[in-house]
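#onboarding

Welcome to the new folks! Below is a worked example of what a typical request in this channel looks like: someone posts a single protein sequence, and someone else replies with the predicted structure as tokens. Don't worry about understanding the tokens yet, we'll cover that in week two.

Example request:
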Amino acid sequence: MKILAIGVFMLLAVLQPPAMAGDYRIAVVDPNRVVEQSPQYEAARDALQREVEERERTLREQQEQIASLQSKLERDGALMSENEVQRLQNDIRSRTRRLKYARDEFQEDFALRQNELRTKLGRQVQEVVVELAKEQKIDLILSDGLVYSNPRIDISDLVIERLKAEFENKAELEKK
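Example response:
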């Protein structure tokens, strides 16, 4: 779809009569590089990593408790009454189900959180790109699907600089 839109634009630009022809300013932005090099992404990634580590620690502890109960059953099962063995087996099954549910929930939450962060950052990048386009009077900004672009028209570094400035301004305001 983007390729079709670009093709139509290029065709219209070529077919314009000379009187209508003007100087078009075209720029390129690499949204993946912008996102990955922005301080907002780094801060969000670090916060998400801390959340992940905490939940993984909790899941590991639950797994260790289950393993401990299974060891106890194997080690002491012959010495325990039938009711105690049954109760311990039920406890192990119940904990195993809860652990599986917690792992599934964790994976879903993690994927959802990643998508939310990526969407939020994508919006910020889009806003900065539009601001730069207006400020620098750029007529067309292209991104994905390029075969070649001259590095002189790549505004990715400008977008990253603007995102860094916004991040620093926000951090300063939060300190006050």
